Structure formats: C-alpha cells, structure tokens
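Question (not urgent): is this output format expected?
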Amino acid sequence: MTTTPRSRARSFDTAAALYGRHRPGYPEALYDVVEELAGRRFAGARVADVGAGTGIGTAPMRARGAEVVAVEPGDGMAAEFRRTHPDIPIVRGDGDRLPLVSGGFDFLTYAQAWHWTDPALAVPEARRVLGPGGALAIWWNDLDESVGWVAEQGERLRTFFEAVGPHSLNGGGAVSFRTLPQGLGSGFTTRTVSWSRRISLDAHLANLSSHSAFLLLGEAGTREFLDAERARLDPVFPDAVVEEPYVVSVSVAVI
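Got this back:
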C-alpha cells in the first residue's frame, strides 16, 4: 500500500478521540525552554499553534497566558479540539497556507507537526506571519530508546512494518524526517528535555495504535501486533503499569 504525507496526516481524523485520550502531553520544562530560547514569555504573547490536532500542545501555552489560536487541517481533529477546548479559537488550514494575518504573531509553534509541511512553502509562511523578533518553535516527543525495553519495542516495530509494507511510525523513517528548515534568522538552537509518565499497559498500547502507521494499516494488522506486544510486556510490567520515558527535542529560531 502506497501512502502520501497528506494521507498519513489525515489518518488521524479517523481516531481523533483515541489520539486525544492516549497521546502523551508535554512537560512544563519544554515550555520553559521555548521561552528561554525565544527570549520572551508566553504570557501576553500572540501564538499560532499549527497542526494543533486535539490541542495537546496548545492548551499549556494558553494556560501560561498566551493569546493562542490553533490551526488544524483535519475535520476529525478540529472537531475533537472544539469539543475539548471550546474557549480556544481554531481556524482551518495548514503550515503551507496559513490563514493568518501577516506579522501578527510572536510565536509560531509546531508540536509533532512540522514533518507534515512542505518547507518550501511553510518557511515563507512562517516569515510572513511572525512579527519582528518572532520565534518559530518546532518539537518532537519520542520514546527514549536508551531505555532497554523501549529499544526492544522499537526494533520490533521496525521489523513488523518492514514486513507488512511501506509504513513507518515516524512518517518517513529517513534522516530527512527531522531536518530543520534553513534561512530563518540566525538559525535554530536545539535542546532536549527528558521526562516520563506512568500509565496503564492498556493505555500504552492504545497510544501505539494512535500512530499513523497503525491507523493506515487497519484493525486486523494493528490487533496482530498489539496482542503480541501485550504478551511480551506482561512479564516486564507485572502490575500492568508502564513508566514511559520520553525525550523532547525542541528547536527554536528567532526571525
């Protein structure tokens, strides 16, 4: 089965509630780092969160006092966003064609979403909507494969998807998937933030199933992997509680 970035991105619309319930959030330390690298606070700032999904990354910036607008292309994700965050404005669009006023924002943020853009279009759009001294912040949140059981699971995932077809949990599998755009101010500064969360084994498996690779694979193939994965993890987590370790890689460029 051949997929395109657009089809992968829109696959989340079929599982927006699942995504909103089980995807991890972000630690407060992440937002501290974004503020530090941007040289300004979220409080009182004008922020556009692009590819906002169900609002996992959007709501914490609003809680810090930012004037936030969400930008989301998907029908299902936008509907779930409106249901769970009725007090945060949301507009329909994507990073390649931002439905936003020129020079109107202090922050443009992409939480787990920059890889769905065409940088040739998204970079000029970022320059257009950010005001002087505005910051483009891009981050990805990944399970930490320096931890043994996570590395073993990651290898099983790669082996499984290599066998069933051209799917990948990260949307591309190549180094270019995480390539940052060029030509933005003085360039990007990157930091990492480590954190973890404790969740049930059921929630851990549900989180896996919310990734685009599984959504595109379909119910039967997803169930095949998750049933086998549960059997492997049961003895590792006998109390059925999983400590998921994460590393957030966050990059900020000031325009």
